[in-house]
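Most newcomers find our protein records easier to grasp once they have seen one. The structure tokens are whole numbers drawn from a learned vocabulary of backbone shapes. The record below serves as our worked example for the rest of this section.
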Amino acid sequence: MVATYPGLILSLLLSTGISQAGEVQCERKEGSVNAIADDSVSLPCFFKNASDLQEPIVSWQVGVQEKAEVVHAEDRNGFQVESQNKSFLSRTSLSPSWKESGNATLQIVRLRTEDSGDYTCFIRGGDRQTQCAYLKLMVNSAFGASQPRGGPLCATIPFLFLTMVPT
């Protein structure tokens, strides 16, 4: 005969991580996004159990590991919680309802070519942080990625003036 101890089973499940309330549940996103300088872009990041999280924080970073910089980070009250890279000041935002909807999509406006890079979305609930999105953003100039500064039009204008000068 085997005895069952419900309290023991529950404590084993909790201690092994099989069932943890308040754990971030992400809809994983990976890929690349192309955009044009001076336009805006949306970088998607979604999680499922927004209302179950204690002290949720969304943090978007660009770069990898030690070289990562904070693009945007905010808590449930909308306060910036980490030091934002100055080049992104007044250019980033999240949906005001991210705390309820789980939509932590980052909006970046007035894009610059130097905004290109690897973006990671982290969702923190309590003391747990989970990577929910990893996206490579490529921002091209309005004239195309391969257009050199000055372009062929600049070389054509002096040539026209030279051909119009009477000899």
